[in-house]
Design goal:
The complex is a heterodimer. Chain A is α/β, with parallel strands linked by helices. In chain A, the strands form seven sheets. An eleven-stranded mixed sheet of chain A has the order 3-2-12-11-13-14-15-16-17-22-21. In chain A, strands 7-6-4-5-9-10 form a six-stranded mixed sheet, sandwiched between helices. The longest helix of chain A has 19 residues, at 157-175. Chain B has a single domain (16-96), classed as ACP-like (Non-ribosomal Peptide Synthetase Peptidyl Carrier Protein, Chain A). In chain B, 48% of the residues lie in helices and 0% in strands. Chain B is built from four helices and no strands. Chain B has helices spanning 16-30, 54-68, 76-82, 86-96. In chain B, helix 1 crosses helix 2. The chains are: A alpha/beta, B mainly alpha. At the A-B interface, helix 6 and helix 7 of A face helix 2 of B. Chain A: It comes from Rhodocyclus tenuis (Rhodospirillum tenue). Chain A: Belongs to the ATP-dependent AMP-binding enzyme family. Chain A: Residues 458-543 form the ApeI dehydratase-like domain. Chain A: GO terms for molecular function: medium-chain fatty acid-CoA ligase activity.
């Protein structure tokens, strides 16, 4: 599946046997030609010259719409939020548009709607495979700009193909073969598009049409597919799968992205599923760039063909599927050719259960709500569950209720970003540049959200009967390093409300024993959170965690 | 909200005892800043009502499965109906619980 620059066109779908099963819909196996018939049937019905807004929920019909558009040379717009005003902003200025969906009612008023979802009986001669120009723009994905306007990013056929081929090499290798792929992830993000749609269709796997939600649904959807299986998910969903008391069918590999995955969660998942868990690093702008196996190694390996260089504190990636060098949104440390460690997310970006947006954009939207004189979003300290941390907002808005503010924000935002709670204050102190300083925000949080009881140290003890000891090691139990680090990370996160992106450095000074009374101490520094685990006066381990996001305005 | 003629529940009368338990469960599982009695039985849990989203729903499903010995299984359409209101959720639990 390698592509050289001299190749100008590629087939819409790779040259596998036409009878090869390519996808599963409602428990039914469909071969390449079944899929192609549906694509070509729909393609004929797309209005000439129209861009396509693809809003199908079902992954099969989403893919049919995407490939039908590609075969007609049409660009697919893939908005990442269902909020009506986001859809309207995405469509603004697109003169000729058709909306595809599998819903009975059009999700967007005033746009030409074409309902998909009815399979066409295959008749006539075997369909011919269209060839597509590598330079053809096939998809437009969006990031949230700081002014609230979605920023478009265009993807070409040939470069998407290259990215998928590079990722497939890693994944199929980890899984020990080409997999049936099931995703719990949204279709209109780069991760879901690449890993749950294009990976199986272009790299010899089998795509499931389902997007299971509850743990029991995931188990049932997996059981319906032939092995080997790949589960494409997020840290949030993975946590819930592991917490649920549901028997899971065997998988050959797990894939996670969108939010930092702790090594401890990765290790837990690998143990439960008996399969490797890979994590993908990438962005909307760049697509997938690197992978790692966090249970084994914290450093990232770039995909084949990608190179990195640093200049004036910025990191640029190029080569592979990238058309031009791209600056990364994160601070990284380069460790060797093709290897790097993630130091810090750039400050403005925040992450709520894997969905990313910019604080500047949220603050901009808040400021535009009628009656709001001033307002600022923040990430308050974690309460019960750091996996599902919510945003809060401080607002100066005399005479306006929290419900009025929420109603004004709801059409513009993915619901996970709605502030919970909204705290009304008389004044938000701003500096000479009109900024809310981080210290000011921390003071507001302390005063209103009770962040001031946070201790800088907590006790730590692993009881003798902990199930990890008999195996680690038989007859000579000691606390595994990964358990120590996990406990340290959880303690810091739950006490400070910070989200940690992972480990920068760690050093083990001496083994920790069952029932040994220890303490975790930490301090917040510009480079992250420095921690020390001690037993009496003796050091057990120390190191530094990276910060995932900063609450600043 | 008038529920006449709506296929809200399979039961003829709402199970008020269970409904109160489920309301308390929602409040404690999601750490909501309201009392259980403040959740109007027919008000939407999604969107404009209580403002729950998919994260809350997954969270809630886990607690429900542990408490009532049932696994929530639903496609997104059905899901929407089950979590439409406190009363709809209570009816669903009433039908599927094993403890």
């Amino acid at each position: 599946m390698s592509v050289t620059p001299s190749i100008e066109t590629l087939p819409l779908l790779p040259d596998f046997p036409p009878e090869q099963v390519l996808t599963y819909r409602d428990g039914q196996a469909l071969c390449r030609d079944d899929f192609l018939c549906d694509i070509l049937w729909l393609a004929e019905r797309l209005p000439e010259g129209a861009h396509v807004l693809n809003l199908s929920h079902d992954r099969y019909w989403f893919a049919v719409g995407l490939f039908a558009a590609i075969s007609r040379g049409a660009l697919s717009l893939l908005p990442n939020s269902p909020a009506v005003e986001h859809l309207a902003a995405v469509c603004a200025g697109v003169p000729h548009l058709v909306c595809l969906g599998d819903q009975d009612v059009s999700p967007l008023a005033g746009v030409n709607y074409l309902r998909v979802g009815e399979a066409v009986p295959a008749t006539g001669p075997r369909p011919e495979m269209p060839r597509i120009a590598c330079e053809q723009r096939i998809a437009c994905v969006f990031t949230s700009g700081s002014t609230g306007t979605p920023q478009p990013h265009f993807k070409t056929f040939g470069r998407m193909w290259l990215a998928i081929a590079a990722g497939a090499e890693r994944l199929w290798d980890a899984a020990g073969g080409r997999c049936s792929v099931i995703g719990t992830v949204p279709l209109r993000h780069m991760y879901g598009l690449e890993s749950s749609v294009l990976l199986p269709l272009w790299a010899g796997g089998r795509m499931s049409a389902r997007t299971p939600f509850f743990p029991a649904d995931v188990a049932a959807a997996l059981a319906e597919l032939p092995a080997p299986r790949l589960l494409v998910t997020t840290p949030f969903h993975l946590t819930k799968l592991l917490d649920a008391d549901v028997e899971m069918p065997a998988v050959a590999a797990l894939l996670s992205a969108t939010a930092p995955l702790s090594p401890a969660l990765a290790a837990r998942a690998e143990e439960r599923f008996g399969a490797p868990l890979l994590e993908i690093y990438g962005s909307t702008e760049t697509g997938q760039l690197a992978t790692r196996r966090p249970a084994r190694q914290l450093d990232w390996q770039v995909l084949p063909g990608i190179t990195m260089r640093q200049e004036n504190g910025e990191t640029f990636v190029s080569g592979g599927h990238l058309e031009a060098p791209q600056a990364l949104n994160d601070h990284v440390e380069m460790l060797g050719p093709g290897e790097f460690s993630l130091l810090d997310r750039k400050a403005d970006m925040i992450n709520v259960v894997g969905k990313r947006t910019s604080l500047a954009m949220l603050n901009h939207l808040l400021a535009r709500v009628p009656g709001v004189r001033d307002g600022v979003f923040c990430l308050p300290p974690a309460g019960r569950d750091d996996e599902a941390r919510r945003l809060a907002a401080f607002v100066v808005a005399p005479g306006v209720s929290a419900n009025e503010i929420l109603s004004a924000l709801r059409p513009q935002l993915d619901p996970v970003f709605l502030p919970r709670p909204i705290i009304f204050v008389d004044l938000i102190p701003r500096d000479g540049n009109g900024k809310v300083q981080a210290a000011t925000l921390q003071a507001l949080i302390k005063a209103h959200l009770g962040g001031d009881q946070a201790p800088a140290a907590v006790p730590l003890l692993f009881p003798v009967e902990h199930p990890m000891f008999p195996g680690h090691f038989p007859g000579r139990p000691i606390v595994p390093g990964v358990a120590l680090l996990d406990a340290a990370q959880r303690a810091v996160e739950s006490a400070t409300g910070l989200t940690l992106a992972g480990l920068a450095t760690a050093k083990f000074h001496r083994p920790a024993l069952p029932a040994e009374a220890m303490r975790i101490e930490w301090s917040l520094e510009p480079a992250g959170v420095r921690f020390l685990i001690r037993s009496g006066e003796q050091k057990v381990a120390d190191g530094r965690f990276l910060l995932a996001a900063k609450a600043s305005a | 909200m008038n529920t006449m003629g709506q296929p809200t529940t399979a039961l003829c009368e709402p199970d008020s005892l269970l409904e109160r338990d489920v309301a308390a469960l929602i409040v404690s599982a999601l750490n909501l800043d309201i009392g259980p009695e403040e959740i109007a039985p027919e008000a939407p849990l999604y969107g404009d009502g209580l403002g729950l989203d998919s994260i809350d729903i997954l969270e809630l499903a886990l607690v429900v499965s542990k408490q009532f010995g049932m696994q929530m299984k639903a496609d997104s359409e059905e899901n929407y109906h089950i979590f439409r209101s406190l009363r709809a959720l209570t009816a669903y639990i009433g039908e599927h619980r094993t403890k």
